[in-house]
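User: New here, any thoughts?
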Amino acid sequence: MLTLASRLRALNDAALRRTIALRSIPPHGIHDFFDLAEALLDPAAIQSTLTHLDRSTLAVLAVAADLGAPTLGELVERLADLGHDTVDAADISARVDRLDELMLLVRTDDTVSPFPAVAARLRAWPEEGLPGVADLAGVSAPSPLAPLSATDGRFTERLAAERAFAAVSAIAELLTELSLEPARELSRGGLGLPDTKRLSMAMGVDLEAVAPLVGIAARADLVALGAGYWSESQAGSAWLVEGAPARWGVLASSWLAALPADVREILAQRPGVAWGDALHRFVAWLHPAGGSWMDERIADFARDAELIGITARQSTSAAGASVLLGDIDAAVATIAGSLPAEVGAVYLQHDLSIVAPGPLSASIDARLRTFADVESRELASSYRLSGASVNRALAIGDDAESILSFLATISLTGVPQPVEYLIRDAADRYGRVRVGSVDPLNPAGPSYVRSDDSAVLGAIAVDQTFTALALISLSPTKLTSAQPADTVFWALTDARYPVAAENAAGEVVHPRRHRVMHPIRPEAPDPTIALVEKLRATDGGEAKAAHAWLARQLDSAIKHRQTVLVSVKMPDGEVVDYLLEPASVGGGRFRARDRHADIERTLPLSSVVSIVPAP
């Protein structure tokens, strides 16, 4: 421990923080460098680190521990004798450097010295059912997985493309639904059942698929959580007008970015093969002390990979293989050739329906949704016009001429007279009912509803739908409510009244129902910064804490019966080195056995220049 504590104290702050982070050492109970060294050499902490090391790195460490303090050449030679499949000196050297960084051993030039506590932990492995030195170094990887047959490969590609299209379509419906009505996040996490059912119907997926798809969308920043509600984000709004391949590319890219590096390394080694039992056997071989943690990590990402078509039937698709290799552009190009072609025209019917002969381009679909309701979301989507749907478009600033012009450009059947009549009639009626704030400077305050059509206003006043608004009649043409104007406006809009919002000047304004959310990823404070500051403060610097530091070193040497090399400054200024075995410390002095002279010495701590472990 003395060796490790001295080494930790000599590190600069950045290196010390990195060491603490790499070993995931909690700050609780650590007051000085000896506490930190004890935490690093705790058997549970060592085991936790070993579980995350791959088999080859563990083999290097175990062989080094078995040999004691070998040179790099001796280490390579012994690994070769045990049948290790990698005996490249540069590779072994890199693994030694990694173990040195993890504070599991000390590398001095070409000499490798594992800490005794690490060696003891590895020696106990066989009794715990974990591999020993010979197994770590000599057991080869499981046989490579057989590639899929041509028939299975074609089926995989077809199924992956179907899943990619289904995921993109479902998430598009998710964003559209959340733009109309956000979904509440429960305090314990997850969506409530009512919102899950609503989103399930809108997305056309089973209840069980809603949460994973919301997670996929959140990972891609397409939805954001704010004030306890999931809403469409600004990135989600932009994503909706992209083509299907580009949309899929965003989902695949975010999946890859979130994939842990160790999992990605495993999967990238074998694209195009099955992710089933054989892969789990390979993972168990690669991380022999890992238990279930790696399996669980792969399982989580495998589920999402299946949902978005990176895999199908636990086999990597061609596009998925490109994703795993980090080539998103190639993956998008591959998936584009498998997805159904988008169309840019529709059939406009006299019964006010709009039928697309195939998947509509994203920009046309997004525009149609502003003034028509979606009736079906299959490959051939259909929409329906109504007075309420047209009013919805008028409320956000559209007008009859722009809607008719757009329909004329995309319709293969022209604009039927009933369609034109419906749109123009809705535009003529729009704004007959106006809503505004009583005090324009206080938009959250009371509001009013006015209309020159007393019959319409009378119907609103007695409509039981608006009981919560507590509407009060001031005159045949005006009502008031204690609720804000936005609340009243959207309540009347939902009830399909031809309502418009207005400002203090009586001009029509177009409020947005739900603000676009921006994903916020709060940066958690780095606990290693505070811990390192604490260690430096308790250390006290070179002068102030010299006695305390030396006393702790001596206490540790006494506890572990360790021989140390003590440099003592004599009265004439000369520095003399003693090889001592400390026996006690107290009163500013310490007593120790001089191993060379075989006598007992008592020395003042104030004269001690340094204490280091005996060579």
About this structure: Residues 347-392+407-428 form one domain. The mean pLDDT is 86. Residues 419 and 450 are 29 Å apart (CA to CA). The two ends are 14 Å apart (CA to CA).
